[in-house]
Amino acid sequence: MLRHFAVHCAARRVAGLTATPSVVARSFSKKAKAGKGKASPEVSVSLDEVSKKTQEDVMKNMKGAVLNYTKVLSAMRPGQADAGIFDNLMLSAYGQMVPLPQLGQVSVVGSHELAVTVYDPSMIKDAKKAIEEMNPSFTVHPNGTTLDIRFPKMTKETRDELIKAAKKQAEAARQHIRRVRQDGMNDLKKLKDSISEDDIKREQDKIQRLTDESIKDIGSLLTAKEKDLSSV
Question: Ribosome recycling factor domain location, by residue (predicted)?
Answer without folding.
Answer: 71-229
